[in-house]
Amino acid sequence: MTMSIGEVPRPILPAPTPASRRCSRGFSLTELCTCFGIVGILSGFGASALSLSSAGLASVQQDLDGALYQAFHQARAQGRNVQVALGAKSASSDVLPVAMPRNVRWGKPASVPLPPGMDKPVVADKTGEAHGRITVTPRHTTTATVWFLTDGQDVLCLRLAGHGERQMLRWRAAKRKWGRV
Q1: Facing residues of 86 across strands?
Q2: Which of 3, 11, 82, 140 could form a disulfide with 163 if both were Cys (CB 3.0 to 4.6 A apart)?
Q3: pLDDT tens for residues 27-79?
C-alpha cells in the first residue's frame, strides 16, 4: 500500500454486524417513552405556573379593546353615536357587543388598590356597573370613564378620557401591582 504525502491513513473497520446496523437507525421505544415522560412532567410544571384562570379576563380585554377601536371609527364614519355593551348577547348597527365569560364579573375587589393617579370613583369602585354601556360619539368623546372587571384574582381597569384616549391597566395578583396592557 503506497501513500502520498499529506494523505491521512484510514483505519480499517470491521464489517458491520446486524446488531450495529439496527442501533444506528434511530431510537428505541424505551428511549422514546422516556423522552415523552420527561416532556410530560415539565409541561405539567409549566401549566401550573401559568395562571390559566386569567384567560377569560385576557379575552375580554382583547374583545373590549377591539370593540372600542371599531366604535370610534364607526361613529366617525357614520356621524352618529355607537355603543359598546359588555355582556350583551345581540348586536345592532349601533351596538357592539363584548362577550363576558362566566368567571369574569363586574367590580373591583376591596383588597385591590386603585390604579396610581386615579381619583376614587363613586359607583364603579363598589359595583363596577356605573356604566353598562359606553357610548362613543362622532367627536371621539365617550360617556363612561372607568370600568372594573375581575376574574377573582386579576383585575382589569379601563379608563376613558378626553377625545378617545383610552388606557387599560391590569392588576396582577402575583406581582401585586398595576401594569399597562
Answers
A1: 98
A2: 140
A3: 788 888 888 888 888 887 776 555 555 678 888 888 888 888 888 888 889 89
CA 1 to chain centre: 71
Q: What is the rounded CA–CA span in Å between residue 83 and residue 68? A: 9
Q: What is the pLDDT of residues 117-176, one digit of tens each?
A: 777 766 554 554 555 678 888 888 887 777 788 888 888 888 887 666 788 888 888 888
Instruction: Say which residue the cell 382589569 belongs to.
Output: 156
- Integer Cα distance of 78 and 148 in angstroms: 29
> Partners of 156 in the beta sheet?
149, 170
